[in-house]
């Protein structure tokens, strides 16, 4: 039997997860990325395994798809506790891109950088090829759209404070993101802020560590994460419903700094103008590293989600799948990777005309995929955003008995469902 070809658009963590799953299933994998590096926002992320994300990561390993998680664990910078987040670790963002790129190379993935997908060739409910900005058509048997949900310069100008010049996307250089699913005719959903404005605001920014007070910097590098109470006049709980990251009220009341290696990451507060930031003791000379224009602009997310099945196949399409934030109102590196694994595996199944795979809701990954798909159908619920680490979905995990920090019991649950190693099995 000839190897099917799976074409994946977007080499963020969702696209990388899809590429790993498709390659392990035996497909020829082409991964198109519009920028000149992989993992996208992952180069300024860092925090992993916090709260319920531990469960999903261990499920992925038990299923046979733990390769990316294991790669990240090889570059751990810190382990510990962040405000309202237990058993977390932070990977070194200086090393993450080359480490993941090497993994993709070792798995035989055909990575094509600076290849911005802009259109599709479609026949009925089947995609035949993706067209990238250089005019070349890349044919395939199945396709996975991991292009993300950011707006690009046009949307950030219209719905934000202008281009924030974020180092993770660099739209002025590489071009705006294009949704292949939308180009194929899949309806596009957006999250909306309380005032009705489409999209959500970026929830985190990073500081040059060298701009911190030396005592504060030394403490951060030693402890990994520190939390500084914010002055009352700087606390704005309404931002919880405007920013894309899903955070707790307690986190909004503090400046939560995490050492991610290359910079100090401020999580959960949205954009803080430099003048306000420098009023905080220890940050009197703080300089924002990313996004560069965080004080006046803000990257807009949540403007491009695609309705899909629990298999992550787009409705009314035979061979088009989505993963990551493209697949619903979800957020986080772990969530991106595991949805990528499901989409990539099922893309191979679709190419081979095999029955698609739906993870049971007795697993966290299966329940999360189903739950976020349901939430996306309702404008009210899709505006909230869902993470395995916070708020509504983490509470659901605990209610449904899905949350535990006992790794052995997580692997045992997968074994009892008869799913151990399923992602490591060749389909071809």
What do these coordinates show?
- The longest helix is centred in the last third of the chain and has 19 residues, at 333-351.
- This protein has helices at 13-24, 53-63, 67-73, 96-106, 152-159, 171-174, 180-183, 214-223, 249-252, 274-277, 333-351, 364-376, 379-382, 391-399, 407-416, and strands spanning 5-9, 28-32, 47-48, 76-82, 85-91, 110-112, 117-123, 126-132, 137-139, 142-145, 200-201, 204-207, 225-229, 254-259, 264-267, 288-290, 300-301, 320-322.
- The chain folds into two domains: 5-194 and 301-424, FAD/NAD(P)-binding domain (3-Layer(bba) Sandwich), CATH 3.50.50; 200-299, no CATH class.
- The termini are close together.
- It is α+β, with helices and mostly antiparallel strands.
- Helix 1 packs parallel to helix 11, helix 2 (53-63) packs parallel to helix 11 and helix 2 packs across helix 15.
- The chain is globular.
- The protein contains 15 helices and 18 strands.
List the helices and strands and how they pair.
Blueprint: E1 5-9, H1 13-24, E2 28-32, E3 47-48, H2 53-63, H3 67-73, E4 76-82, E5 85-91, H4 96-106, E6 110-112, E7 117-123, E8 126-132, E9 137-139, E10 142-145, H5 152-159, H6 171-174, H7 180-183, E11 200-201, E12 204-207, H8 214-223, E13 225-229, H9 249-252, E14 254-259, E15 264-267, H10 274-277, E16 288-290, E17 300-301, E18 320-322, H11 333-351, H12 364-376, H13 379-382, H14 391-399, H15 407-416
Parallel strand pairs: 1-2, 1-10, 2-6, 10-18
Antiparallel strand pairs: 3-5, 4-5, 7-8, 8-9, 11-17, 12-15, 12-16, 13-14, 14-15
Helix pairs in contact: 1-11, 2-11, 2-15, 3-4
């Amino acid at each position: 039997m000839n190897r099917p070809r799976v074409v994946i658009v977007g080499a963020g963590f969702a696209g990388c997860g899809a590429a790993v799953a498709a390659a392990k299933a035996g497909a020829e994998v082409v991964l198109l990325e519009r920028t000149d590096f992989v993992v996208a926002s992952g180069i300024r992320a860092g925090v992993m395994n916090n709260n319920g994300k531990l469960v999903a990561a261990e499920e992925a390993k038990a299923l046979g798809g733990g390769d990316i998680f294991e790669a990240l664990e090889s570059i751990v910078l810190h382990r510990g506790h962040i405000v309202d987040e237990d058993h977390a670790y932070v990977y070194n963002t200086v090393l993450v891109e080359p480490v993941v790129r090497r993994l993709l190379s070792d798995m035989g993935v055909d990575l094509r950088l600076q290849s911005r997908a802009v259109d599709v060739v479609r026949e009925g409910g089947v995609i035949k090829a993706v067209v990238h900005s250089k005019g070349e058509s890349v044919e395939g048997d199945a396709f996975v759209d991991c292009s993300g949900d950011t707006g690009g310069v046009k949307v950030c100008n219209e719905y934000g404070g202008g281009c924030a010049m974020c180092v993770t996307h660099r739209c002025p250089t590489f071009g705006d993101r294009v949704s292949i699913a939308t180009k194929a005719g899949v309806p596009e959903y957006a999250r909306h802020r309380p005032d009705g404005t489409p999209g959500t605001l970026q929830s985190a920014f990073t500081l040059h560590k060298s701009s911190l007070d030396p005592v504060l910097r030394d403490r951060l590098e030693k402890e990994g994460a520190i939390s500084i109470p914010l002055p009352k006049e700087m606390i704005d709980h309404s931002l919880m419903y405007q920013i894309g990251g899903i955070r707790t009220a307690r986190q909004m009341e503090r400046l939560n700094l995490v050492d991610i290696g290359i910079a100090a990451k401020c999580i959960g507060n949205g954009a803080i103008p430099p003048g306000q930031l420098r009023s905080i003791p220890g940050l009197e000379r703080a300089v924002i590293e990313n996004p560069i224009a965080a004080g006046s602009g803000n990257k807009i997310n949540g403007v491009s989600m695609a309705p899909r099945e629990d298999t992550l196949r787009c409705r009314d399409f035979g061979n088009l799948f989505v993963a990551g934030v493209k697949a619903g109102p979800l957020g986080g590196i772990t969530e991106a990777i595991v949805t990528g694994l499901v989409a990539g595996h099922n893309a191979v199944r679709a190419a081979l005309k095999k029955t698609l795979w739906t993870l049971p809701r007795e697993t966290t990954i299966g329940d999360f995929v189903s739950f976020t798909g349901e939430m996306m159908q309702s404008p009210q619920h899709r505006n909230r955003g869902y993470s395995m680490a916070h708020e509504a979905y983490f509470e659901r995990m605990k209610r449904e008995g899905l949350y535990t920090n006992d790794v052995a019991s997580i692997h045992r649950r997968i074994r009892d469902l008869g799913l151990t190693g399923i992602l490591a099995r060749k389909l071809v």
